[in-house]
Amino acid sequence: MKDPCCIATRDNRIHAKLRKIIPSKKAILILAWSYLFALSWTIPLSLEGSNFAECFLFAIAPSAIICALIVLVSASGVLQTIRFAANAKIPAWPWCFTVLLSIWAIVLLINYPGAFSTDSVDIINMVSGLPFESDHFRYDSLNTHHPLAWVGFNAVILKLASIAGIQGTGALGMLSFVQLIIFTACCTFFIQKTGTLSGSKIIWIASLIFFAANP
């Protein structure tokens, strides 16, 4: 007769292997959300007449995988950051944020009210009630291919500027500065995360220099 302890140990090994092979419910939900997120911004490509198989292969699937990895790494990184923060001798995040914002603010002043892409100009025209049709894109797709939340965000900032009596170039400069603050916060998070996870001040400094030199 086999020892029950041996049978239990073998079953535990089998279950452990299955857990490695079969994704958890959380992982499945993250993958599903990532797929829907990627699908939401690639639908207009199909509506324009692009081959769906090509869209799925080169846009939807890679984007979904990248989104899922970002979510998983970010979720696990929170606990690891707390665990390693005490051992990683890197400067506090406000210092990093201030350095980046100071350097990039100078670049913004040089290019005041900011350097806007074609899409940004379209969004600004859209929320300002101006014609936003462009030759480079067919505006018969869902949400004119711009993310609804981002369009709404731009509208809120420009509305606040209008309420404060800031018009024209000043409003655009305000919009650029708010976007700069958000971008600085995201890059600061990445730099601090890189430093704490690696435990290396050299990597932290290298990351800071890289972002500071690429406004």
Task: Tell me what you see in this structure.
This protein has about 220 residues and is mostly helical. It folds into 2 domains: about 1-85, no CATH class; about 90-215, no CATH class. The protein has 8 helices and no strands. It has helices at about 5-20, 25-45, 50-85, 95-110, 120-125, 150-165, 170-200, 200-210. The longest helix has about 35 residues, at about 50-85. The protein is flat, with a radius of gyration of 24 Å. The relative contact order is 0.10. The model has no long low-confidence stretch (mean pLDDT about 70).
Order of helices and strands: HHHHHHHH
Structural class: mainly alpha
Q: What does the main sheet amount to?
A: none
How many individual β-strands?
Answer: 0
Proportion of residues in β-strands: under 5%
Radius of gyration: 24 Å
Summed up, the domain count is 2
Count of helical regions: 8
Uncertain spans? none
The end-to-end distance, rounded to whole angstroms, is 71 Å
The overall average pLDDT, rounded, is: 71
Please bin the fraction of helical residues.
over 70%
Descriptive key words:
74% helix; mainly alpha; flat; 2 domains; 8 helices; 215 residues; 0% strand
